[in-house]
Amino acid sequence: MVYIVSTPIGNLSDISFRAVEVLKSVDIILCEDTRHSIKLLNHYDIKNKLVSYHKFNEERRIEFILESIREGKSLALISDAGTPLLSDPGEVLIRKLKENNISYTVVPGANALLPALILSGFDMREFTFIGFLDKKAAKREEKLKSVLKEERPVVLYSSPHELLKILESIDKVFKGRRVCIVKEITKIHESVFVGKARELISYFEKDEKIKGEYVLLIEGYEEKNEEISFDEIKEMYFEGIKKDKPKDVIKKLAKKYNLNKRELYSKLTKEKEDS
């Protein structure tokens, strides 16, 4: 049997009795970083064989894993923290196990995703999870634009050195949308920050040593509350009056973006006169 085992994301006590029993019973424990996992295993007096299994050697390890199973050995897969496969290695292994009709099961437990949703205070009845973003700004922003009109909260992960870059991209794509950052879940310095991306950038720029792991949540799209620049309003107005009367266009825009109709009319007609 192969076990996919969840491990703590910070507090070492956040592990199930079953997870400890399984890790003690298997012949081999596959882990991302043996130096990291040994701390957890020593804490629970687990002395089984550790074998590295990470995104750089997934393919190469498969034959070793399949051969071990053929020899009648049982294995457990763990990640550095949380649940394997959730933005962590393991997909290649699962695919190969299915191809070879090998049974596997899951020992559920800690993950960063659900605690972050609860701590954010955002509506969590439904959500969209996109994990880690690309390190290239263009690809990162392309991914964010794909969920721009998502009405459910969007959840993503960030490493410390990528945090400010991701916030910059969120600010650019989502403008004034509220963002929640949850830091160091279950650890001593667990913290929750809520504000617009620009406000959070100003706060974290002062932190010379951004440390820890971060979960970011972007509040779901709600048309009437979506902030929009006057230039965008102006563009829609001039496009709209090609088909409808100016007063009708202004009425629609004011209602759609919760704006004062008279003020909007005054500004737009002035713009038209100036142009």
Structure description:
- The protein has 275 residues and is of the alpha/beta class.
- The chain has three domains: 2-107, Cobalt-precorrin-4 Transmethylase, domain 1 (3-Layer(aba) Sandwich), CATH 3.40.1010.10; 113-224, Tetrapyrrole methylase, C-terminal domain (Methyltransferase, Cobalt-precorrin-4 Transmethylase, Domain 2), CATH 3.30.950.10; 228-274.
- Helices cover 42% and strands 17% of the residues.
- The protein has a five-stranded parallel sheet with strand order 3-2-4-1-5, sandwiched between helices.
- α2 links the parallel β2 (28-31) and β3.
- The N and C termini lie far apart (73 Å).
- The model has no long low-confidence stretch (mean pLDDT 91).
How do the strands and helices of this protein lay out in sequence?
Elements: E1 2-5, H1 17-25, E2 28-31, H2 34-43, E3 49-52, H3 58-70, E4 75-77, H4 91-99, E5 104-107, H5 113-120, E6 128-132, H6 137-145, E7 154-158, H7 163-174, E8 178-183, E9 191-196, H8 197-205, E10 214-218, H9 230-240, H10 246-256, H11 261-274
Helix pairs in contact: 3-4, 6-7, 7-8, 9-10
